[in-house]
Write a structure and sequence with these properties.
Blueprint (H helix, E strand, L loop, with lengths): L2 H5 L4 E5 L8 H11 L4 E4 L6 H17 L3 E5 L2 H7 L3 E4 L6 H8 L4 E5 L4 H9 L4 E5 L15 H10 L4 E4 L8 H6 L3 E4 L1 H4 L3 H17 L1
Parallel strand pairs: 1-2, 1-8, 2-3, 3-4, 4-5, 5-6, 6-7, 7-8
The structure holds the ligand Cc1ncc(COP(=O)(O)OP(=O)(O)O)c(N)n1, the ligand Cc1nc(C(=O)O)sc1CCOP(=O)(O)O and magnesium ion.
Length: 215
């Protein structure tokens, strides 16, 4: 192990779903999860009613469970509860982490979007979140973003707090090194995985993380 590797936290992949998980998506998810280690998968669907999301979630949840990948639901505490997800990701307008903890229990993984804000992240930590998410680090077409984060936010967080931090927004194998080297515990990635060959993309990200830790 190099000196750099010893001082950096482990950095794991956290995949975010595309908005369409119908058709061949379950096969694509399987390929992605079998290409290289992935820690978590977030089901991020928009403008679809909860019954339909629950129906779409079922095979994906099974694929994740079979491979020990945490299955996180975006936006909705009630949906996470209903389908027995491993956790929920909450944006600033999506609900209270304290309430999520009461409803989902001690074992649930609760993540909170903190944009580029140290204050929001400390608040989320105090509210009992299991991770804080900072972003967007790079331009993204997956979502219209209003906040831009820089790697020094990750270094600052890492130097002061034990709570894991997630980096999100436009992350690719080509641009992820500064985030890994700044101490991101997880890289959350959507477009770079699903826009083309998902297995090659996951392998590429995994290799890029390993190389960044060695450099
Ligand atoms: C890991 C992770 N980080 C941030 C987000 C963004 O959440 P939010 O701000 O609620 O925006 P939407 O994803 O709901 O559009 C996320 N989903 N996951
Ligand atoms: C869902 C999401 N939240 C962001 C934030 O900054 O909070 S950026 C983002 C999009 C992530 O997808 P991609 O990897 O395709 O950029
Ligand atoms: Mg949200």
């Amino acid at each position: 192990m190099s000196d750099n590797e010893a001082t950096l936290p482990d950095c794991q992949l956290y995949l975010i779903s595309p908005l369409d998980v119908t058709g061949s998506f379950p096969e694509r998810l399987t390929r992605a999860l079998e290409a290289a280690p992935v820690a978590a998968f977030q089901l991020r669907l928009k403008d679809i009613d909860q019954h339909e999301i629950a129906r779409l979630a079922e095979p994906l949840q099974r694929i994740c469970a079979d491979r020990d990948v945490a299955f996180i639901v975006n936006d909705s505490i009630s949906l996470a509860k209903r389908i027995g997800a491993d956790g929920v990701h909450l944006g600033q307008g999506d609900g209270d982490p304290v309430e999520a903890r009461k409803i989902l229990g001690r074992g649930a993984q609760i993540g909170v979007t903190c944009h580029d804000s140290r204050h929001l992240a400390m608040e989320a930590g105090e509210a009992g979140a299991d991770y804080v998410a900072f972003g967007a680090f790079f331009p993204t077409v997956t979502k219209a973003v209003e906040h831009q984060a820089a790697p020094d936010l990750l270094s600052w967080w890492q130097s002061l707090f034990e709570l894991p931090c997630v980096a999100i927004g436009g992350i690719t194998a080509e641009n992820c090194a500064p985030l890994v080297r700044a101490g991101a515990d997880f890289l959350a990635v959507s477009g770079a995985v699903w826009r083309d060959d998902e297995a090659a993309a996951v392998t590429g990200l995994h290799e890029a993380i390993a190389n960044a830790r060695l450099a």
